[in-house]
Design a protein that fits this description.
- With 218 residues, the protein is mostly helical.
- The chain is 47% helix and 10% strand.
- The protein has eight helices and three strands.
- Strands 2-1-3 form a three-stranded antiparallel β-sheet.
- Strand 1 and strand 2 form a beta hairpin.
- The radius of gyration is 17 Å and the shape is globular.
- It binds manganese (II) ion.
- The site of manganese (II) ion has 7 residues, from helix 1.
């Protein structure tokens, strides 16, 4: 497998560990509740990490690759490792990004470069938000909605099932929303739309811009 330039989690390789959140568990109240944040981070995210590490124990030749390299090269992996990287490696990357692009500095809007790229791709912030909302609302079952950079350096909105990561499709994700029920059921029960509405208040657009700049420079 070729070595690649990662853009986000450059430091992440086996053995993987749970990253600290860059804010307190209660910091996103009242939009995201503390109880969900604790179980989502400490239980769900940790389980993806544990399962990924367990699988890589048997594959020392893949232990030095970064998580991004494993996801980009997913289809070149041995089939049993591929399944674990897709589900649990994806779970680790996706949650790592999810925590990173949330902020207690509420109600941010896209800044300079990312605002221009959103206008270029969607016509306006409102059109982008409508497209992203639709993708997030209509995921059947468990999955994610994403804002990604495509091969032509345009922004696109996609949805993915389960923990599938856009890196494995040749896209570079810069913003992701978890729409698994475990992300919202404690506070919102079945009301996914209310959870999506809450999420817009807590997006860290400054961080999304930093991720965009890293991702678009490789
Ligand atoms: Mn989750």
């Amino acid at each position: 497998m070729n070595r690649l330039q990662p853009y986000l989690f450059t430091h992440l390789h086996y053995p993987y560990t749970l990253p600290q959140l860059p804010y307190a568990y209660e910091a996103l109240e009242p939009h995201f509740d503390k109880a969900t944040m604790v179980v989502h981070h400490q239980k769900h995210h940790q389980a993806y990490i544990d399962n990924l590490n367990k699988a890589l124990e048997a594959y020392p030749q893949y232990q030095s690759y970064t998580l991004e390299e494993l996801l980009i090269g997913l289809n070149t992996l041995p089939s049993d490792l591929k399944t674990v990287v897709q589900n649990h490696g994806g779970g680790h990357f996706n949650h790592g990004m999810f925590w990173q692009i949330l902020s207690p500095d509420f109600d941010q809007k896209p800044t300079s470069v990312i605002a221009q790229k959103i206008d270029a791709a969607f016509g306006s912030y409102e059109n982008f938000k409508a497209a992203f909302d639709k993708a997030a609302r209509t995921v059947f079952g468990s999955g994610w909605a994403w804002l990604c950079i495509d091969q032509k350096d345009n922004l696109v909105v996609i949805a993915s099932p389960n923990q599938d990561n856009p890196l494995s499709q040749g896209l570079r994700p810069i913003l992701g929303l978890d729409v698994w029920e475990h992300a919202y059921y404690l506070k919102f029960q079945n009301r996914r739309i209310d959870y999506i509405d809450a999420w817009w208040h807590v997006i860290n657009w400054q961080e999304v811009e930093i991720i965009y700049k890293k991702a678009s420079s490789i």
